[in-house]
Amino acid sequence: MDFLEKTFGSCGLNGFQGTSPSDLIVYSQSSRSEKSPKKMEQKKDDHFVEQNGVRFAGIHLLLEFWGASGLTDQAHILQALHKAAVAAGASVLKSFSHEFSPYGGVTAIVVLAESHISIHTWPERDYAAIDIFMCGDARPHDALPALRTAFAPKKFEISEHLRGLPPGRNEA
Predict the structure, then answer these.
(1) Is the Cβ–Cβ distance between 132 and 60 less than 8 Å?
(2) In terms of pTM, does the model score above 0.85?
(3) SS3 assignment, position 45
(4) Which end of the chain has fewer CB atoms < 10 Å from its terminal CB, N or C?
(5) Strand ranges for the chain from DSSP E
(6) Alpha helices for the chain (secondary structure H)
(7) Which domains does the chain have, with CATH numbers?
(8) Inter-helix orientation angle 74-87/144-151, to 10°
(9) Catalytic sites, residue numbers
């Protein structure tokens, strides 16, 4: 039985598509007793973002769309999320949507190599909550025009959070 099978069971890396053993943190026999991770040799960086001398995991945008349209059409919603991801320079891995009854609200997510974009809609209130989290070289703010065009909100609010800041450090 190899390391991956022992660690992840018979699924191996199936649950980690696009992941190679060099991307994983493993515990060697000696480090296991010390409770410290030993990073396997890595060919690429950790995809943290650096802005103004601060390193963090990524930018997390929370959007509130009021008076929005197109909130019941799953195909339209997924197309909008895909366009937003491409505009932000992100790589789409998978997407999924689900419609709720009785009002036709939709929850959709586009999983990105850089993280995700998701939406939850309440068409009976013309409202959508959108979540964009991206790391690496992706530009989450560049996703906004595609989303505003697709859903045409009359009013919107955006909040930004820097994820993965060192403990005790406030947002930059």
Answers:
(1) yes
(2) no
(3) coil
(4) N
(5) 25-26, 38-39, 49-51, 54-56, 58-66, 92-99, 106-112, 115-122, 127-134, 155-163
(6) 3-8, 29-34, 74-87, 144-151
(7) 3-39 (no CATH), 51-163 (3.60.90.10)
(8) 160
(9) 115, 120, 135
